[in-house]
Amino acid sequence: xxxxxxxxxxxxxxxxxxxxxxxxxxxxxxxxxxxxxxxxxxxxxxxxxxxxxxxxxxxxxxxxxxxxxxxxxxxxxxxxxxxxxxxxxxxxxxxxxxxxxxxxxxxxxxxxxxxxxxxxxxxx
Length: 124
Known about the structure:
By secondary structure, this protein is an alpha/beta fold. It has a single domain, classed as STAS domain (Transcription Regulator spoIIAA). The protein has four helices and five strands; from the N terminus they run ββαβαβαβα. Strands 1-2-3-4-5 form a five-stranded mixed sheet. A hairpin with a 2-residue loop joins β1 (about 5-15) and β2. α1 (about 30-40) packs parallel to α2.
């Protein structure tokens, strides 16, 4: 097994979780990402921005895990949005047809603004 520098870190922006993924997402690392997302969903943190700007590579296991994560989030009436796609990762997502599934945004700020909770609420 090859050592990798894979990491997942989580930040909060109000009710929205920002999940930073970096390194190589392969068969050996998918469990760490799955566990991180599960820990968010259990207490009801169901709106997630997945920042893949640090992702260098993903194999078929990584592609499958991204699809499973999307389904898990949607099942709890959450939303998953993606930012930071490198040309290489974007190409992989296009080939696998996942590019059509994930709402992709150019920046974290744009993704955060796209959530309904981030719209100003008016009271009359």
